[in-house]
Amino acid sequence: MTERREELLRAAVSQIEERGVAAVRIADVASALGVSNALVLYHFSTKEKLVAEAFAYAAEDDLTHLRKLLGRRTTALRRLRAAVRWYAPTGQAKGWRLWIEGWAAALREPALREVARNLDREWKAAITEVVAEGVAAGEFRCPDPAAAAQRLTALLDGLAVQMTVYEGTVSRARTREWVDEALAGELGVERAELTAARS
Amino acid sequence: MTERREELLRAAVSQIEERGVAAVRIADVASALGVSNALVLYHFSTKEKLVAEAFAYAAEDDLTHLRKLLGRRTTALRRLRAAVRWYAPTGQAKGWRLWIEGWAAALREPALREVARNLDREWKAAITEVVAEGVAAGEFRCPDPAAAAQRLTALLDGLAVQMTVYEGTVSRARTREWVDEALAGELGVERAELTAARS
DNA sequence: CGTAGAACTGAACGGCCGGTCAGTACAGTG
DNA sequence: CACTGTACTGACCGGCCGTTCAGTTCTACG
């Protein structure tokens, strides 16, 4: 991946976040970098491809971040807590807007669907693995790590929608409580053990 | 609401489902009914308004259906099970596509955000009420009906995304199990009580 | 120096689509 | 019958935006 391409993809992602998938124009991406429209089409032959690659780029970013969190050298419990709290829409909702729009776009464009599906699969696989590690290490128990990962993901996605779309309906603190409770529930530990765990 | 308007709104909803919010053209709605483009603009002065009203119309439909389910004369447990199973993305995902697109569109258009927010609020209020009824009747217990409704809704929304966008990743049967478990968990009953309950 | 190819641009093209407008048909009213 | 308001249409316009293309600049290489 050349320097220019990455620069263009970053600009595309930020423009999509700002204006929405439906509304981004090639001119927005171009002028954000002070280059000509034609240059964008020179690197990505069509707008569709630009958008698809931008989402893939953002997904790669998210996965890298997740793997960094899950790769730390601590207990599985702490790593899971860190991951889930990062993914939880407790922080800034910036990233979530992108994925909510991504879901909608994925309903129509197969290329985007593949990107979203892949991100989802990788995310769940990573979580599942760490849960399994924790179980193997005797930290907690979980009869079906993969199922637990799916349920947690679903809850987090749903909470993200509520926090992002219906902004202000649920408090961040409340959301965090629920996420912690759900994680504790899935792992069969007390919530106190979670909140006490220092990262 | 006149006859023509409703007809146009129904056509708009089905065209949005078919082509997506971003891609619907006024011409699609018009030709679906065999009328002129100009007629659509005659009734709804602008495309934006047409789309917003179409979503509001669909939301009203969903709420009417929900209230019918929750208004039946049975135990609260049975009514809740019926509502949650209907809302769950177990059936045809047709309606869900609309709301996933609605969330994305709501991120940009305030009018749509209001529609989505309203649907969400009404849905949760209705569920909360029936949970409270069940508690009052001693059918089950639930320390915080409103919170339970929010958690359930979040899980359902999240599962809907997975079922709809990543079609085929999770089986319908599995989803139903999880939804039943979550409901049972919130109400402090055994899942067997739920599945046994004949509607 | 000469040439090739990559990176990049300005200008223009062309299709699409929301919106406008000047009308027509028709029903109701007095 | 004349008049008015409503529902509706066909034709057209104008802007927007993705895409194309014929160049220009710059770098690398022999």
Characterization of the model:
Two copies of one chain form a homodimer. Chain A has ten helices and no strands. Chain A is 76% helix and 0% strand. The model of chain A has no long low-confidence stretch (mean pLDDT 94). With 199 residues, chain A is mainly α. The A-B interface holds A 20-23, 97, 100-101, 103-108, 113, 116-117, 120-121, 147, 150-151, 153-159, 161-162, 164-166, 169-170, 174, 178 and B 20-23, 97, 100-101, 103-108, 113, 116-117, 120-121, 147, 150-151, 153-159, 161-162, 164-166, 169-170, 174, 178. The first copy, chain A, binds a DNA duplex (30 and 30 nucleotides) through helix 3.
Structural classification of chain A: mainly alpha
| Uncertain residue segments of chain A | none
Roughly what fraction of the amino acids of chain A lie in strands?
under 5%
Main sheet summary of chain A? none
Assembly level: homodimer
Helix content of chain A: over 70%
Average pLDDT for all residues of chain A? 94
Rg measurement of chain A, Å: 19 Å
Q: Name the overall outline of chain A.
A: elongated
Protein chain pair with the most extensive contact, residues per chain: A-B, 37 and 37 residues
Helix count, DSSP H or I runs of 4 or more residues of chain A: 10
Spell the H/E element sequence of chain A. HHHHHHHHHH
User: First CA to last CA of chain A: what distance?
Assistant: 35 Å
How many β-strand runs of chain A? 0
